[in-house]
Amino acid sequence: MADLDLRLVRYFTAVAEHRHFGRAAAALHTTQPSLSRQIRRLESQLGARLLDRTPQGTRLTEAGEVFLPRAQALLRSAEEAAASTRAAAAPSRVTIGYRTNLFVTPAVRELRRRHPEAEVVTVHLGWTETRAALLEHRVDVAVTRLPLRTGGLRVTTLYDEERVLLVSADHRLAGRASVTLADFKDEPLPRVDDPDWNAFWRLDPRPDGSRAPDGPLVSEFEEKFELIAAGQLAAIVPAGVRFSRLRHDVTIVPLEGVEPCQVALATRASDDNDLLASACKTLEAHLTSPEAAGLKVAAR
Questions:
Q1: Do 73 and 203 have their domain in common?
Q2: I want to staple 260 with a disulfide (CB 3.0 to 4.6 A). Which of 68, 160, 180, 268 is the partner?
Q3: Which residues lie closer than 8 Å to 121 by C-beta, 6 or more apart?
Q4: One domain for residues 14 and 73
Q5: Residues in domain HTH lysR-type (predicted)?
Q6: The domain that contains 38 carries what CATH number?
Q7: Above 60 in pLDDT, residue 207?
Q8: pLDDT digit string (tens) for 43-67?
């Protein structure tokens, strides 16, 4: 059996594509005489003439016509084999993205203990940054909250998290045992540059079809807290938000009649390696709901 040299096969497909030795040699960054010698070597290995020179250039022989699609398939197969092997090789680094108030520290410590040879990096993600960070390969796995557009991603829901109302400490609703949407239907709520986020976290549109009052466009977590503390707006937030416990000028009020949000784990759909799988498994094992962690939702 012929022990084919893939380099020679690639040379042949280049000549077959260009139908000209000179142009193929230029594309391959070699000389025309050298390319001719390599093609003759391939023909010798196969025991068949593959190409004929003509006044117009080069044409495939009958044997060349038969060999060309097989040669192209052989090169594709070699490229796929190399890519699959690289993908299966144990990576030495995994980057974990996380949203505010979703704490990954225990999982990261465990992952570093299990994989001392690997570099485990953490990156904080903004409210609407998760999808882009994954698809742009800035993070390999993200601990995030839904909603999240899932095209090209693999998403695993971890647990439900209640939504609560965040208001200033002197707000008319502060201290209430609970509130419903009707209690704050006229309150302005913050907006971001993401229609899915706005629809879910502003309850917009409302069940009756009305639109939520527009609050300011915000981009930073701290900015939103300042506006709430100043009494300029209220906000629907996850029950796990802990920043409110560090400030005495804001408070949370339990919210009734509103479905919870969901905390999820997201990776690129095409990614599959042992370190990433271990990271996902460790994160799932350590991430729990506020209720499971003993953090009850209650107004101050």
A1: no
A2: 160
A3: 93, 94, 95, 96
A4: yes
A5: 4-61
A6: 1.10.10.10
A7: yes
A8: 999 999 999 988 888 999 999 999 9
The span from the CA of 91 to the CA of 183, in Å, is: 52
Query: Domains in the chain: how many in total?
Result: 3
Residue 290's closest CA among 160, 150, 100?
160
Is residue 282 in a domain? yes
Residue-wise pLDDT tens digits, 62-77: 999 999 999 999 998 9
User: In the chain, what's the furthest Cα-to-Cα distance?
Assistant: 92
- Please name which of 264, 289, 290, 251 lies closest in space to residue 99, comparing C-alpha atoms: 264
Within 8 A by CB and 6+ apart from 124, the residues are 97, 98, 99, 100
The CATH number of whichever domain residue 225 belongs to comes to: 3.40.190.10
Q: Which residue has the tokens 């986020």?
A: 197
Q: Answer yes or no: do 98 and 55 share one domain.
A: no
Residues 250 and 180 in one domain: yes
Q: Is 272 helix (H, G, I), strand (E, B) or coil?
A: coil
